[in-house]
Design a protein that fits this description.
CATH architecture of the largest domain: 4-Layer Sandwich
CATH class of the largest domain: Alpha Beta
CATH topology of the largest domain: Double-stranded beta-helix
Helix content: 10-25%
Shape: globular
Number of helices: 7
Number of domains: 2
Strand order of the largest sheet: 1-2-3-15-7-17-4-5
Number of strands: 17
Amino acid sequence: MSAAPESIATRPLSPALGAEILGVDLHQALTPAQEAALRKLLDERQVLLFRRQDITVEDQIRVMRLFGKVSDETHDGSFHTFVSNVLPNGLFGDHELIYHSDFAFGEYQPPVISLYATDVGSAAGPTSFANCTRACAELPDALRHTLEGKTVVQVARFAGGNSAATSDNRSRMLGLKNLPPDSNFRMSRHPVMKPHPRTGVPLLFTSVKHSSHIEGFEREESDRIVKELLTRIYAADNTFTHHWQNGDLLIWDNVATQHARPGLAGGGKEQRRTLRRVLVSEKTARQMLGDVSYGSGDG
């Protein structure tokens, strides 16, 4: 295969984050200079978009290996899965996914994730992204001082999953050292202002889906602070929404950003949405999830 051109042209996707990569055919081999440029762009812009790509799963895996070890999620040697509301083995179905970073309830988060649009309808739900490093950088000094050294408790699968019951059940976690015996939740603790594991840049590690509370505060104060942080993270000027077209490849930093999508039920064939997922991870999904079922909205 011939090498792609040396230069990489880009276009910002939003002021807050994201870059569209122009003039690169991912079916062709990339040069070392291009590979280095893409790694640098991911650190700087957090989300990379490649439009109109005609790539195989092998191409997608090859590209993702630029960013680290590719995970064999399903332990079958395929190194990919499908996020789909059409395929019988597709992950996550039709339901809404509120803002989160995948596996944020565990000690380890896969650093980089990709989705490639193999079959999307004209009304397929978009994917939105929020920049957690930018939100942290813009904290007022007083709030930053309040958060210094503080720990956030992250929990998987609040009762009710993605429903409104999620926030109501956070109170069950307050002050607990271990999870209730009737739960299949996973719990972990992280700095609220967490250093990015690769760049060292601090980011706000709180999400509407997984963050239970901040330790060291009474419930009301914790709730107030978490709400303020989430308002900053999900502010319109700190987010970007991508509307899918067939042939789109999105690659994003799973620690520096959060992502979300609306529910997809009721739209018929125009809401069909099949995206091929390849992720960079030193651990498999089974290692990160333990006995928690995969694809039920826990990512």
